[in-house]
Amino acid sequence: MKQFITLLILIGLTCSLFAQEDNEGITPVTLDAITLSPVNVAYLKKVNDSHTPEVVQELQFKAANFDVTSLSQYDKKAIRTFDVVFKASNGDIIASYTADGSIVTAFENFEDIVLPMTVRKMVFDGNDGWKMEKNRYICVFSDDNLTKKQYKVTLSDGNRKKRMTFDFDE
Questions:
Q1: How do residues 37-50 score in pLDDT, each as one tens digit?
Q2: Phi then psi for 142, rounded to 5 degrees?
Q3: Stretch (H or E) spanning 7
Q4: How many CB atoms lie under 10 A from the CB of residue 21?
Q5: DSSP secondary-structure letter at 61?
Q6: What are phi and psi of 154, to 5 degrees?
Q7: Band of pLDDT at residue 34, cut at 50, 70 and 90
Q8: Which of 33, 62, 137, 140 has its CA at a distance of 20 to 30 angstroms from the CA of residue 23?
Q9: What is the reported pLDDT for 18?
């Protein structure tokens, strides 16, 4: 057993000696630095901010990073858009992609979600004792612009109801 271990150590040292040989005659090549960014970074910058719920952010990230070439009906030569639906338990995003994978339009619709803290503060500021009955989040992105970002909230206090709308359009 000692001989076997000694043999393994000797082979290990021999291999490491050959690995240290000098590489004369090999010229190192310097490559230009490149920066890669997702195709749909403009979409994410427009629709995602501090007023965006977490469940929506997750689907927005999936939509922004979706590979349109994975669709069975994908045809790079076709001059049309490809519609893809991203679903969550309480809403969805319907996104239209060009052949190169850019999002042209996106419609986001979610109901009864956990509102971001900034929106919750706006809802309950001056509405002590009221309870949120339901809410809806809508966001529309079209041609590299955020055209609509809105929360609709219904509050109740016994038999009384109050509807509030918050717009976060640009």
A1: 567 888 999 999 88
A2: -150, 130
A3: helix 2-19
A4: 7
A5: H
A6: -115, 125
A7: low
A8: 33
A9: 52
Q: Which residues of 89-123 are buried (b: 16+ CB within 10 A; e: fewer)?
A: ebbebebbbebebebbbbbbebeebebbeebeebb
* SS3 state of residue 70: helix
133's tokens: 């009955």
Query: Is residue 51 scored above 70 in pLDDT?
Result: yes
Cβ(107)–Cβ(63) below 8 Å: no
- Compute the distance between CA of residue 133 and CA of residue 157 in angstroms, rounded to an integer: 9
Residue 34, both tokens: 């490149």
The token pair at 163 is 């509807």
- Cite the beta strand spans of 14-130 per DSSP E: 82-88, 91-97, 103-111
Which is nearest to 117 in space by CA: 48, 46, 53, 47? Answer: 53
Host H or E run for residue 58: helix 54-64
C-alpha to C-alpha distance for 113 and 119, rounded to whole angstroms: 12
Q: How far apart are CA 139 and CA 93, in angstroms?
A: 9
Handedness of CA 101, 105, 110, 114 (dihedral sign): positive
